[in-house]
Structures are given as structure tokens and as C-alpha cells.
Amino acid sequence: MEEGKVIRNAGLLTIVGALIGIGTGIARAADASIPSVGSVSLAEILTVVASVSLFFGAFGLLRSGAAGNSSAAKAGYVLVFVGLTVALIYEVSLVLQAQPSELPGIVAGLLVGLGMLTVGRVTLQAGIWPGWRRFAPLIAGSYPLVMVFAYPLITSIPAIAEIGSQRLDQGLTAIWFLCWLPLGMALWSEPDREEQVQPRTAG
């Protein structure tokens, strides 16, 4: 399959997954009635599906070469894929009703955030992606690290505290997937490789 099409398909899957994650997070934050499949909440299943889609986003970014081939980019990708794997295991454990500690989810978010910020910085320096697309990896990586500092401040606001920590966390989960949406769109707009080659002008 042509390389540009592979990257666009990865972007499309990322977009679909991000939208599923956004919608599910908003529905759970609004305390909407969501059906179950047996003893498992459909919302938890959809969150796992959305989490899987983030792998396509990271894979598409890697295949695009937008961050170049530096050691910093490679280290960033390692952090991203390790973090996404830990996050997926955590989400699956929730579906299986294993009642895991929240620590793996927090660690996963920090790994993904640090990795995407590293890849995002290298992407900016490489200048391979034009315009707004070059900022997409930074947007995807900014949320976890921002929330480390912002979460205590948010929960200290009385009006927000009344919502309840569980509903608040689901709303923040929707924002997490929202931050991946620009990356999916950036990958989806990847041109064919031949379109990237600018013809030489005579003279």
C-alpha cells in the first residue's frame, strides 16, 4: 500500500477513536444512561476502543517521518508506545472489573505526555510538516503534564468539587482524547509522497 495512504488511514482511525473517546467521556461526565454488555459497561468497552486508536496515531506519526530520525525522536516514541501500552492494560483491567490502582493510569499519562512532547519538539525543529500540522504532536502531549499541575487547582474550586471526582475525571478523559484529534487530522491530510516532491524550475 502506498505510504501516504497508510498514514492517512492511521489518521482516520485516530480521528474515529478520538471522537468515540470524546463522546463517551462527555456522556459519562453528564451521568447519561449508557447500556451494558452483560456485566460490562458499554462505555468502558468504547474507552478501550478509543485507547487502541491512539496507537494508530503514534504509528502514523512514526511512519510519516515528521520528527526525523534523531535519537531524541526514537526515545520519545519509546516512551509513547510504552505509555500507551500501560494505559491500555489499565483500561482493560477496568473492563474486567479488576479495580486496579489509579497509579498505572497516572504513570501511563506522564509517559505518553513526555514522549509526545519530546517528539513534538523534534517535529517543530525538523520542519517537515508545514503550518498547523507541526504543532499536533505537542498538543497531544501537553494534556497529561498540564493536568499534573492543574488538577489540584481544578478540584479545589467548590463548584467543580460538587460535581464529584468520578464525573470530573470522565470529563477530563474527553479532553484527553480531544487533544489527539489534531494529530489524527494532521495524519489524515498527509499527501502522497510524489505530491511532496516539488518540481525544479528551468533556469
How large a portion of the residues is in β-strands, by DSSP E?
Answer: under 5%
Mean of residue pLDDT?
85
| Series of H and E elements | HEEHHHHHH
State the total count of DSSP E strands. Answer: 2
Strand arrangement within the widest β-sheet reads 1-2
How is the secondary structure organized here?
Blueprint: H1 3-29, E1 36-37, E2 40-41, H2 42-64, H3 71-95, H4 103-126, H5 136-155, H6 158-161, H7 165-188
Antiparallel strand pairs: 1-2
Helix pairs in contact: 1-2, 1-7, 2-3, 2-7, 3-4, 4-5, 5-7
Can you tell me about this structure?
- Helix content is 72%, strand content 2%.
- The chain contains 7 helices and 2 strands; from the N terminus they run H-E-E-H-H-H-H-H-H.
- A two-stranded antiparallel ribbon has the order 1-2.
- Strand 1 and strand 2 (40-41) form a beta hairpin.
Structure summarized in a few sentences:
The protein has 203 residues and is mainly alpha-helical. The chain has helices at 3-29, 42-64, 71-95, 103-126, 136-155, 158-161, 165-188; strands at 36-37, 40-41. It has a two-stranded antiparallel ribbon.
Label this structure with key terms:
203 residues; mainly alpha; 7 helices; 2 strands; 2% strand; globular
